[in-house]
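Thread: Newbie trying to understand structure tokens

Hi all, I'm a second-year student working on a class project, and my supervisor (Dr. K.) asked me to get a predicted structure for one chain before our next meeting. I've only ever worked with sequences, so writing a 3D structure as a token string is new to me. If someone could post the tokens and maybe explain what I'm looking at, I'd be very grateful. Here's the chain:
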Amino acid sequence: MLGPTGSGKSELAIHIAHRIGGEIVNFDSLQVYRGFDIGTAKVPEPERRGVPHHLLDVVEPGQLFTAGDYARLARASLRELAARRRIPVMVGGTGLYLRALLQGLSQGPSRDPALRERLERRAEKRPLSLHRILSRLDPIAAARIHINDKKKIIRALEVRLLQGRSISELFSEGRDPLTGFHPIKIGLNPPREALNQRLDARTVRIFAAGLLDEVRALRASGVGRDAKPFESIGYKQALLVLDGLLTVEQAVQSTQLETRQYAKRQVTWFRKEDGVQWLEGYGDACALQAQALALVEAEFAF
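---
Reply by user tm_fold:
Sure, no problem. This is what the structure looks like when written as tokens:
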């Protein structure tokens, strides 16, 4: 089950899993982190209808976790479910994680902390210089990477400097696709304006449900400000509120705007995914759930 945030993917996945004897496997890059619950909209245990969930809360907040790490864990989960003759129901909104699982990733060099630190320092002193360097060393990658996307720029430079070849060459090499499974891709495509309204309302609920308290507790437990999930939408705004740099109202408005923009980017990404059967509407609608179940049952005899 794939689609933009707020489209009801989790509700649909739970409905399908409950009907076919399946178990949920998460592919959301934030829900893998322990302790980050409210801002990531994790489905509370009582609402899971007894359906087991996998790859939730498997990573410590300060732990480095890549798409490659996700693919390894997810494939292990799929094999374990298959051994128990249970059907994996994948659900999430991180397209790169799904792609890493299904298609595999090209093998690049491991991260080099010392090199990354040097590049980070240069970026702080001369913000646009890394992209100019990448333009000389790997013009194809530079043309594809936005000038402000520091993380991708640093990774492209890291590959080029450590391996002596471009990240574009690396991506052109063969990958290790998932075998032994028959994916059925169902995508949710609710009306854009209605989705935006739903996302705005959800943001208000998230802050009202205690997002600030969750962030206070995480910080008090020792989670550093540089933890990866604190960079995500909602959490970074909550940190600014606690720092006194934003009011709650400003944080809500900023989160609403960025969430709408993120949903749009998700749709753009998933539209490029092959073999998706798109359904118009929300995953918590009974009629759409019936459509989705019919698609699944058409592939298998339950």
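A couple of things are worth pointing out once you decode it. The chain is about 55% helix and 5% strand. The radius of gyration is 20 Å. Feel free to ask follow-ups in this thread.
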